[in-house]
Design a protein that fits this description.
The chain is globular, with a radius of gyration of 30 Å. It is mainly α and 791 residues long. A 6-stranded mixed sheet has the order 1-4-3-2-5-6, sandwiched between helices. Helix 11 runs parallel beside helix 14 and helix 12 packs across helix 14. The protein binds adenosine monophosphate (AMP), manganese (II) ion and zinc ion. Belongs to the exosome component 10/RRP6 family.
């Protein structure tokens, strides 16, 4: 503080004192936790009325001096008095290592009906035999038998509608910018009940545009959590608690996919994915002001800049990285969140006007922004998939060249981290930050304490599993080094060169048998023969050269195989085997989940007959084929547009009909709201009477009949027929070479696309699901169960 110049006000100095105290107390807290063994139950210690203070503010983009940067970042990561919102989720998060399948099960504003795969999903979810596998795996099994759903499973549910969306004339003509209301005079509603959500949805459905933004949390969750949604209309702001309403958010598809309503976002790329991932929400008719800013070639494209530029509003982006799971939200957080959407519709007007002015009134530039926005809304959420090669991508970014042992350690730690993060539903950065993983791999500590020493602060899960990590590091240390690596280490003056197990390694060398603690022997302890071999420094060098010359070629052929085998055996081959047998009883699909022993065989990925080879190749190819497929799909869509014009009308009617049918069975939004607020009879009446034109909505009569099952009926179990696994081709999961096309193949989409899109093949097939469609939102408790091998 002494160094601060005199201009620094008393207030700022005072802030510094407060800040420093915060930091000291926080550190003390962390150290106490560490001493305590940490990770007690992660239960919150939040007293009633506790107002989470500013400690959650990150240093990101902080205005003013660069003071305290470190401590603030630190503080962000340690906002630990927060309940894990996941605990309240009705449907558990699916972190399994399987591709994402859309969550949608009802499709408002459809011109092409939702494939039966999705409409029947709720029923399938309740099948008891699926309870022990993650939802996505259960779906694989199902499609194994039917084969007909693969295309649908991975397609964008609104692709057809988006591709046939045209920008109406009015949206291409110059608007008169409509000034925003001052924040102080604008009503702001916090929404955390279904009833309020429904009421808001009703309002939104009547508008021609509204602005949307999301806040997200990614540190204490594997996939991330959408924590807040902000919506602004021309007259009011809404803040929606999406952690509370996660299971109900889908109802907003009615407004979000209505092509007659423009949804304005700023930089929607992530938002579009988060909406799909967490709520099954899609956006039809998006306008992205970030794309507009780019097209206008503004100096910067951030929202701050647009706010300054068009509204002369100074925004404070420092809450962007706040822990948005905190409840109740502080006033500052609410203020911040509102600002993100409050001005957006005005900015939308301004940029449209400018885009036209820039182009002398020609709509080309503006049209390009609409098109880019549409492309963004066509984006599909892709779940992070663990493959044999994932670790290489991360490792390459580290700008460190690793030798065989270090790279092995990195690979093993990476697999451990991924597995644990999925299992515990934490981010990989929380489990073990990459820089620490890097440090451990680099140092290859001999003792568990050495691993702890590589981490500061020590991540709770590292401390908890330090012995497991130690085994992994040991395993890596047993990898033979390449000749060049030995030489490199020698020039660096490092000692491992002398390790006898490296130079004397051979297929019949029993000194490397599991359990041997050979490498820990000091020179004095070495067996006599080896002692003689290395008795003299100079002589050793000569011997070393000779020996490594002899070793190098051998490794390529014989030794390499053994080395890989050795990997697996090194812990204890008997234990491993036993474990694998036991696990195979638990879950036949275990091999699709990341587990340490799957990744260990380094050669497998180069062996075309192995399962891992197939899997990794498949995922590599996926992105390429995906692109090709999308190109094909676009071409195809154009070609068929004419032929289908007639059929489309037919389809639309069918879609409407099926939507209506499905509404009979699905308890509707309005019903749910009505249910949840019994006694507010008037409200129910009002809501039910608002039957729209474009989208068929349930009549009162339909609602009444549908109400009963929702309230009382259990899932339709009487009519349930157990799934017959004997019909499935389980060989697929057993690692056989089967090139058979019953195997799950995310790329199949591409091959079958043409056939599938042919109008004959499109059978709306809604009748089938009718009986079992009564969806009980509160009861879909089935969900993710951990199938990881138990330690
Ligand atoms: P925004 O659209 O600016 O409100 O950002 C939405 C969410 O994206 C925030 O809640 C953050 O979780 C995340 N986010 C935004 N900017 C960053 C950043 N620079 N680094 C990491 N996460 C960010
Ligand atoms: Mn945003
Ligand atoms: Zn935001």
């Amino acid at each position: 503080m002494r160094d601060r110049n005199k201009l620094t006000g008393l207030e700022e100095r005072f802030d510094l004192v407060v800040d420093s105290n915060d930091i000291i107390l926080e550190r003390a807290g962390i150290l106490l936790d560490e001493a305590d063994g940490v990770n007690r139950t992660q239960q919150p210690v939040m007293p009633a009325g506790f107002q989470p203070p500013k400690i959650v503010v990150s240093s990101w983009n902080r205005k003013g001096s660069g003071s305290g940067t470190h401590s603030e970042t630190f503080r962000l990561l340690h906002a630990k008095n927060v309940t894990r919102p996941q605990l309240k989720f009705k449907e558990k998060v699916d972190n399994s290592n399987t591709p994402f399948i859309p969550k949608i099960f009802i499709k408002p504003n459809a011109t092409k009906p939702l494939p039966s795969y999705f409409t029947n999903k709720q029923m399938r979810k309740e099948r008891p035999e699926d309870l022990d596998v993650p939802a996505a795996l259960a779906d694989f099994i199902h499609q194994q038998r039917t084969q007909e759903h693969v295309d649908d499973m991975f397609a964008h549910p609104y692709q057809y509608e988006l591709e046939h969306l045209t920008t109406p004339e009015i949206l291409l003509s110059k608007p008169e910018p409509q000034m925003y209301k001052p924040i102080a005079e604008t009503k702001c509603t916090f929404i955390d009940t279904l009833e309020d959500l429904v009421a808001m949805n009703e309002k939104l459905c009547k508008l021609s545009e509204f602005a949307v933004d999301l806040e997200h949390h990614s540190y204490r969750s594997f996939l991330g959590l959408t924590s807040l949604m902000q919506i602004s209309t021309r007259d009011e702001d809404f803040i929606i608690d999406t952690l509370e309403l996660r299971g109900e958010m889908y109802i907003l598809n009615e407004a979000f996919t209505d092509p007659a309503i423009v949804k304005v976002f700023h930089g929607a790329d992530s938002d579009i994915e988060w909406l799909q991932r967490d709520f099954g929400l899609y956006v039809v008719n998006l306008f992205d002001t970030h794309q507009a800013s780019r097209a206008l070639n503004l100096a910067r494209h951030s929202l701050d800049h647009l706010l300054k530029h068009f509204c002369n509003v100074e925004s404070d982006k420092r809450y962007q990285l706040a822990d948005w799971r905190i409840r109740p939200l502080t006033d500052e957080m609410v203020q911040y969140a509102r600002t993100d959407t409050h001005y957006l519709l005005y900015i939308y007007d301004c940029v449209r006007a400018q885009l036209l002015d820039h182009h002398h009134g020609q709509p080309g530039l503006l049209q390009s922004v609409w098109n880019k926005s549409k492309d963004i809304s066509l984006k599909k959420y892709v779940k992070p998939i663990f493959t044999e090669e994932s670790y290489l991508e991360v490792q390459r970014k580290q700008k460190k060249s690793f030798n065989t042992q270090q790279l092995t350690a990195f690979r093993l730690l990476f697999a451990w981290r991924d597995k644990l993060a999925r299992q515990e539903d934490e981010s990989t950065g929380y489990v073990l930050p990459t820089h620490m993983m890097n440090k451990i791999s680099e140092e290859l500590p001999k003792e568990p304490q050495g691993i702890i020493a590589c981490c500061n602060p020590v991540p709770p899960l590292v401390r908890q599993q330090v012995n497991e990590l130690h085994l992994l590091v040991q395993q890596a240390r047993e990898m033979p080094l390449l000749k060049a690596e030995i030489a490199a280490q020698k020039t660096k003056g490092l000692t491992p060169v002398r390790k006898p197990e490296v130079t004397l390694f051979g297929p019949h060398d029993m000194s490397r048998a599991p359990g041997s603690d050979h490498r820990h022997f000091s020179h004095d302890d070495l067996p006599i023969k080896q002692g003689m071999l290395f008795s003299d420094e100079h002589k050793m060098d000569v011997d070393m050269q000779k020996i490594s010359c002899l070793i190098a070629p051998a490794k390529i052929t014989l030794f390499k195989e053994l080395e890989a085998k050795n990997d697996q055996d090194s812990i204890s081959s008997v234990n491993m085997k036993a474990r694998r047998i036991i696990e195979s009883f638990e879950n036949p699909f275990r091999m699709y989940l990341p587990s340490a022993d799957v990744h260990i065989n380094k050669n497998a990925k180069f062996d075309p007959s192995s399962k891992i080879f197939e899997i990794s190749k498949r995922w590599k190819l996926l992105s390429i084929e995906q692109q090709q497929k999308e190109i094909d799909a676009k071409k195809k869509a154009k070609e068929e547009a004419k032929d289908q014009a007639k059929k489309a009308t037919e389809e639309r009617n069918k879609a409407k009909q099926s939507y209506q049918e499905s509404l009979q069975n699905v308890s509707t939004v309005r019903q749910q709201a009505a249910e949840s607020t019994k006694g507010v009879g008037q409200k129910r009446q009002r809501v039910a009477s608002e039957v729209g034109e474009s989208t068929p909505k349930p009549s009162k009569k339909l609602m009444k009949t549908a109400e009963k099952p929702q309230k009382t009926e259990p899932p339709p179990q009487e009519s349930f027929t157990p799934f017959d696994y004997s019909q499935s081709d389980l060989n697929v999961f057993a690692g056989a070479k089967s090139k058979d096309n019953t195997q799950f193949d995310p790329n199949r989409q591409a091959h079958d696309f043409r056939k599938k899109r042919n109008p004959k093949g499109q059978k709306p097939n809604f009748g089938a699901g009718n009986q079992s469609m009564s969806y009980l939102p509160g009861k879909s408790e089935r969900g993710f169960r951990h199938n990881w091998p138990k330690r």
